[in-house]
Specification:
This protein is 11% helix and 43% strand. It has 335 residues and is mainly beta. The radius of gyration is 28 Å and the shape is globular. It has two domains: 105 residues, Sandwich (Immunoglobulin-like); 184 residues, no CATH class. Strands 9, 10, 11, 12, 14, 16 and 17 form a seven-stranded antiparallel β-sheet that branches. Strands 2-8-7-4-5 form a five-stranded mixed β-sheet, with no helix packed on it. Strands 13-19-18-15 form a four-stranded mixed β-sheet, with no helix packed on it.
Length: 335
């Protein structure tokens, strides 16, 4: 009986020690801070990793990031070498990257046309939630801009609300940096791309330039008689169109308020699309190849037949006879 009691006591002691050990290990694991720094792998800087970009275009960046402590922010700095003072700085701290452990970092940094040509130094820094950071550095060459744009599309995020197939309460948004795509005289994008939040609302402004770089897009809406022949479309992408009052589908809304002569634009079918408002919607996340089209109709009665649902119509050429006087091709990244 004494031996049996001793064995039981020994078993109880062993069990207590065993579970105490497990508890201690578990506690140690919880309390141990993450010390592993973020990792940046296979980073491409420039197309085909050529570490070269032309002023007035955009710098392609693509790489894999792993952060055990979860990403807090990603910072880019590009500055001149040799005593120059020109610098570009950008911080990415939105939901695409923050609080993520593994991400593909794919961005295009606009390099202004005024950036001096020459040698630059590139820095990409990833900081995690624990304060650990890792930086990748690289030389970068900026080549002189020799591009004269014939067209531009300028995207600026704005405030507004969605009501089915159109917007209400549109207003400028503070501290917003516009994004610009430049095109040659054939409508091919030569600098920039559209990288937009899926649920963001953006004002799109069309600019057209003559040989002296003077803006001439006003010619299409100089008065009501002239504007009656023109309408903008955004084709391609097979968009899911918005129907409710939340931003799940796409909306493209031409919205000039006055003609060039100062008279008021009246009604949805009277607008042309030199100024438009656009949202891609969460149902259209990803990359799309698009065309901004300004069409001139053969009949002055055609424009009044175009509804707000026709902007992405694949057969618009047949339904609305005329000619595409402007057709600009570009990439949309809605992410």
């Amino acid at each position: 009986m004494h031996m049996r009691t001793r064995n039981i006591n020994f078993l109880l002691l062993f069990t207590a020690l065993f579970f105490g050990f497990l508890s201690s290990c578990k506690k140690d694991n919880v309390d141990t801070p993450i010390t592993a720094k973020p990792e940046i792998g296979a980073l491409e800087i420039g197309m085909d990793n050529n570490k070269t970009v032309q002023a007035g275009s955009d710098l392609h960046l693509d790489g894999e990031i792993v952060a055990e402590g979860l990403i807090e922010k990603i910072e880019i700095e590009i500055h001149q070498e040799g005593g120059g003072t020109f610098k570009i700085a950008k911080i990415y701290n939105d939901e695409r990257y923050v609080n993520r452990k593994n991400v593909n970092f794919h961005e295009h940094i606009d390099i202004p046309a005024v950036a001096p040509a020459g040698k630059y130094h590139f820095h990409l820094t990833v900081t995690d939630k624990a304060g650990n950071s890792t930086t990748v550095e690289s030389p970068l060459t900026v080549e002189a801009s020799d591009i004269q744009a014939s067209y531009k599309l300028i995207f600026t995020e704005v405030n507004g609300t969605v009501h089915g197939n159109h917007f209400h309460d549109l207003a400028d948004k503070e501290h917003v940096e516009p994004s610009t795509i430049s095109f040659d005289n054939t409508g091919k994008a030569i600098a920039g791309h559209a990288h937009l939040k899926p649920d963001g609302i953006y004002k799109i402004e069309l600019k057209q330039f003559d040989a002296a770089s003077k803006e001439i897009q006003g010619q299409y809406i100089k008065d009501k008689v002239t504007a009656n022949l023109y309408k903008a479309f955004l084709t391609g992408g097979s968009f899911v169109l918005n129907t409710g009052n939340s931003v799940t589908g796409a909306i493209f809304q031409p919205k000039e308020t006055t003609y060039g002569d100062g008279s008021a634009v009246s009604g949805a079918t009277e607008t042309t699309g030199i100024i438009t408002y656009f949202t891609a919607g969460k149902d259209n996340e990803g990359e799309k190849e698009l065309f901004y089209v300004l069409r001139k109709f053969k009949d002055v009665t055609t424009k009044a037949k175009i509804t707000r649902e026709d902007w992405n119509l694949s057969g618009y050429e047949t339904k609305f006879p005329g000619d595409d006087v402007i057709k600009l091709s570009f990439e949309l990244h809605a992410e």
